[in-house]
Amino acid sequence: MEKAIEELRTKGKAAKEASRHLAYISTEIKNQALYNIADDLLARKDEILAANQKDCQAAEASGMDSAMLDRLMLDESRLEGIAGDVRAVAALPDPVGETFDMRTLSNGLIISRRRVPLGVIGSMYESRPNVTVDISVLCLKSGNAVILRGGKEALNSNSALATVVQDAVTRAGVPEGAVQFIDNTDRELVNHLLKMNDFIDMFIPRGGEGLIRHVIETATMPVVSGGIGVCHTYIDSNADIEKAVPIVFNAKVQRPTVCNALDTVLVHADIAERSLPPMAAELGKAGVEIRCDQRSLAILKSNKSLKLTAATEEDWGKEFLALIAAVKVVDSLDEALEHIRTYGSGHSEAIITENYSAAMRFLDEVDAACVYINASTRFTDGGQFGLGAEVGISTGKMHARGPLGLKELTTYKWIIFGSGQVRE
Amino acid sequence: MEKAIEELRTKGKAAKEASRHLAYISTEIKNQALYNIADDLLARKDEILAANQKDCQAAEASGMDSAMLDRLMLDESRLEGIAGDVRAVAALPDPVGETFDMRTLSNGLIISRRRVPLGVIGSMYESRPNVTVDISVLCLKSGNAVILRGGKEALNSNSALATVVQDAVTRAGVPEGAVQFIDNTDRELVNHLLKMNDFIDMFIPRGGEGLIRHVIETATMPVVSGGIGVCHTYIDSNADIEKAVPIVFNAKVQRPTVCNALDTVLVHADIAERSLPPMAAELGKAGVEIRCDQRSLAILKSNKSLKLTAATEEDWGKEFLALIAAVKVVDSLDEALEHIRTYGSGHSEAIITENYSAAMRFLDEVDAACVYINASTRFTDGGQFGLGAEVGISTGKMHARGPLGLKELTTYKWIIFGSGQVRE
Questions:
Q1: Is A108 left (phi over 0), alpha (psi -120 to 50) or beta?
Q2: Tens of pLDDT along chain A (424 residues)?
Q3: Of B401, B414, B423, which is closest to A369 when you measure between CB atoms?
Q4: Does any CB of chain A come closer than 8 Å to the CB of residue B384?
Q5: I need a labelling partner for A324 at 20 to 30 A (CA). Which of A24, A205, B53, B123 fits?
C-alpha cells in the first residue's frame, strides 16, 4: 500500500507539473492532440478491442447483466463514434484566454478577468470506457491535466484507451504527464486520491449515488457532481394537452436510464380527468409502470391495459432510471412548487402551461439547474444546449450549474496592467 | 447543548425559508432595506455604542492589545462610515435576474442562463463588528439570506448591530428570517453549524489562518475562503526603479496588516545593486524590518540605519501582516516564477518591468487570483476593482477568484422557453 500511495502521489505531481505548461500552450497544439487521439483510436483499434474483449469476457463470466455488458462493450463502430466526438470537441472554440469585464479605472489601471484552466482535474467513474476518452479530451481542450480512475470491470479497456490518448497527445507536443491513469483499482487507494488537494484542483465523480456521496464526503478538494436527477413535469390547469402528452412521453420514454428523464408527473386537479387518461395510455403502450396517488388511481383504474400500482411515500423523490413514473394530482401551482421543493434534486423541472403568469412563477420559484416551460426535460445536456460536450451535469450551485462544458472547466484570474500606480 | 443545536437548526431553517422569497423580491425592496439599515445605524447609535462599550471594557480588562482594541471599537464617526458603505451598496446594480448566454436553438427552444442568488450564506468572522453589517448588506442585495457567527469578544456589538439590521430589513418588507445571528459563541456549536449543508449553500470564513483551516476541514457545504495573502513583488532586470521603489513602498507600508500587503521582494541580480539601496532606504524610513537573503544582505549591510536580519527558510512564504519584508536576489525571471510557485498563496503577485515579454510571461505563468504589471498589490480589493464592495478575497479557484462582490454571491439557473419540443 505504501508503494501504491507513493506511485499515486508521483502521478499527482506529474499532472500538476504538466498543468503549468498546459495552461498556456496554443489552441493549435491542443487541437492537434485531439485529432491525433481521434486518428489513433481507429489506427490502434486492434489493441483497444482486444483489451475490451478481456473485460467483457471477465464480466460475462462473473454474471454481469446484459444492459451493463452492453455499456462495457466496444466495437469498431463505437470507436468511430468516440473518435467523431473527439473531433467535435477539437472543433469547439478554446475557452482559455478569453478576457472579460475589462475596464480602465480612473487611476489608469486596466483591469480584466482572463479565463484560465483550473489546473488538475481528477475523475472517478464507472463502467463505460468511453468516459476515459471523453473526460481526457474535454480537460485537455480546456487546458487542464487530468487524473483518471475508472471502474475495475473496465480496467483493461480504460488502460488501453488511456495509453492511446497519452501517446497521441505527447506526439502533438502536449506536456508529458497531462493525462494520468490509475491502474490500481484498490478501493482503499481511492481515499488517498480524494485527499490529494495539493495536486488536484477539482474532482468530478461520475456514477451512481453511492460513488458520488462517497466522493463528496471524503474529498478535500472541491467536488462538482450531480447526475442524480429527480425530474418533475407539472401539468398546469391551463396546459395544452396536445403538448403535455408528447412531452411527458418523451421525457419518460425516450431514454429512461438517464438523469434528465422524467420521474414524477404532477397534474392539476382541474385538468387531471382530461389529461391523465390519454397520457397514461401513451405511456402504457411503451410499457411504463405508473405509480399513482389515490386521486390519479381513481381516474386511471378503469383502463385495464395499464400497469398501475399505488404510490408509496418512497416513490416521491425517487430517481427511477427505468420505465416507471409516479403521478400525483395537486390542487394548485403552489402545491406543485411545494412538492418540487420537497422532493426535487435540483436537476431539471418542467411546467406545461398556456398561462403566462403561471409559467413565469414556475421559472422564478423553482430552484433547479434547468427550468423548462413546455418542453421535455430530456434536453438537459451539454450537446443539446450548444456547449458542444459535457463532463457531467452539476446539481450543485457553486461554480457551475447544469451541463459542465469546456467553459465550466475553467476559472479566471484578474490581470492588471499598471504604469506605476500605488494605492492612496 | 441539545437545545442549542435545536435552536441553531431552527435558525438555519428560518433562513432557508426566507431565502426562497428573497430570491425574487424586487430591487426596490432590497434597496429600501439597505437604506433603512443605514438610517437606523445612526438613529439607534446609543444602543449600539453602549453594547460596544461593554465589549471594549471587557476586552481591555482581559488585556487585549491596543491594535485589536482599536479594531473592536465603534464610535459615531465609524458608524457614519459604515452607514455610508451601506448606502454605497444600495446604489450598486442588482446582480439578480441578469440573463446571459441567451440563444435560440434550431428546434426553436430559447435557452439562457439567469443569475439567481445562492440561497443561504453562512459566515464566521473575528473581531471587527462592522463585518456584521457588511456581510448582511452584501448578502441581502444579492438576494441571499445570511447566518452570522461573529467572535466572542464582539458579541454585544454584533448582537446589537444584528438587531438593528433585522428590524430595518423587516420594515422594508424583506422576509423575516433573512438575517440570522448566532448569539451562542460556544466553540462546539460552530462544528454543528458547519455541518448544516441542508440549510446553508455557501460558507465564508473571515479571520486568521486557524479559523479558515478549521472551516475548510470541517464544513460539509462549499467554502469560499481566502484572506491569506503571501504577496510577492518581482523587480525584473529591466524594471524602472522610479516605479519600483514607490510601488514596493506602497505595497508594504500603506496598510501592512492586510492580506494584499507585500511580503517578499524578489530582485533580479542585474538590478539588485541599483534598486535595493534606495528601496531599503525608503522602507527603513517607515520602520520596516528587512529580512535579507545572503546576496541582498551583502548589498544593504553598509546602511547602518536599516533594520536588517538574515532571512531564514521560514520567512519565504510567510504572511507578515506587519512592517516586515523579506528580500531575495534571483538570477532570472524563471527563478522568480519558481519562487512564487513554491511560496505564493495564490492571492496577489506583481512584476515591475519595462520588458514587454517578461511582463506577458509573468501574466501567463503566475497562477494567482490577481496578477499585476507595474502596480501595487494593495489594489486587490472589491472597492478598488469597481465591484463596489466585497465579502472577502478568494484564493481558491472554484466559483470565484479574488474579490467577492455581489455577482460572486450569485449562481445561475438555465431557463428554457419551449413550445412543445421533445428530444429526437
A1: left
A2: 899 999 999 999 999 999 999 998 999 999 999 999 999 999 999 999 999 999 999 999 999 988 889 989 999 999 999 999 999 999 999 999 999 999 999 999 999 999 999 999 999 998 789 999 999 999 999 999 999 999 999 999 999 999 999 999 999 999 999 999 999 989 899 999 999 999 999 999 988 888 888 898 888 888 888 768 999 999 999 999 999 999 999 999 999 988 999 999 999 999 999 999 999 999 999 999 999 999 999 999 999 999 999 999 999 999 999 999 999 999 999 999 999 999 999 999 999 999 999 999 999 999 999 999 999 999 999 889 988 778 889 998 999 999 999 999 999 999 999 999 999 9
A3: B414
A4: yes
A5: A205
**Residue B375 to residue A243, Cβ atoms within 8 A:** no
Contact B369 A413 (CB under 8 A): yes
Q: How far apart are CA B128 and CA B89, in angstroms?
A: 19
Q: What is the DSSP letter of A41?
A: H
Instruction: Find cell 439557473 and name the residue.
Output: B413
Superfamily of domain B2-224+404-417 in the CATH hierarchy = Aldehyde Dehydrogenase; Chain A, domain 1 (3.40.605.10)
Q: How many alpha carbons fall within 13 Å on the CB side of residue B92?
A: 26
Residue appearing with cell numbers 450598486: B92
Whether residue A170 lies within 8 A of chain B, CB to CB, comes out as no
Q: Which of B247, B398, B416 sits opposite A222 (nearest CB)?
A: B398
How far CA A136 is from CA of A9, A409, B40, B354, B359, in Å, comes to: 19, 12, 56, 39, 32
Give me A31's grid cell.
487541437
Cβ A270 vs Cβ A387: under 8 Å: no
**How far, in Å, CA of A258 to CA of B136, rounded?**
40
| B222, B370, B378 member nearest A398 (Cβ) | B222
Does the domain made of A231-384 have the CATH classification 3.40.50.2000?
Answer: no
B408–chain A Cβ distance below 8 A for any pair: no
Q: Rounded to the nearest 10 degrees, how much is the dihedral formed by the CA atoms of B212, B217, B222, B227?
A: 20
3-state secondary structure of B27: helix
Of B243, B367, B379, the CB nearest to A423: B379
Delimiting residues of CATH 3.40.309.10 domain(s) in chain A: 231-384
Q: Where are the alpha helices (DSSP H) in B63-106?
A: 66-72, 76-90
- Rounded alpha-carbon distances, angstroms, from residue B198 to B9, B12, B15, B16, B411: 10, 9, 11, 9, 18
Amino acid letter, residue B87: R
Q: In chain A, which residues fall in CATH 3.40.605.10?
A: 2-227+407-415
Q: B51 vs chain A: nearest CA distance in angstroms?
A: 33
Task: Report whether B74 contacts B49 (CB < 8 A).
Answer: yes
Task: Answer whether B379 sits within 8 Å of A109, measured CB to CB.
Answer: yes
Dihedral sign for Cα atoms in the order B355, B358, B361, B363: negative
* Partner-chain contact A119 B397, CB within 8 Å: yes
Whether chain A has a CB inside 8 Å of the CB on B30: the answer is no
Q: CB-based burial of residue A101 (10 Å sphere; 0-12 exposed, 13-18 middle, 19+ buried)?
A: middle
> Testing the interface with B: which of A104, A416, A419 to mutate, by most B Cβ within 10 A?
A416
DSSP state of B242: H
Considering only alpha carbons, which residue of chain A is nearest residue B379?
A423
With CB atoms and an 8 Å threshold, state whether A422 touches B380.
no
Q: Which residue has the cell 467536488?
A: A223
Range(s) of chain B covered by CATH 3.40.605.10: 2-224+404-417
| Nearest chain B residue to A217, by CA | B220
Give the global pTM. Answer: 0.92
Q: Name the amino acid, one letter, at B229.
A: G
ipTM over 0.90: yes
DSSP 3-state assignment of A113? strand
Q: For A2-227+407-415, give the CATH class.
A: alpha beta
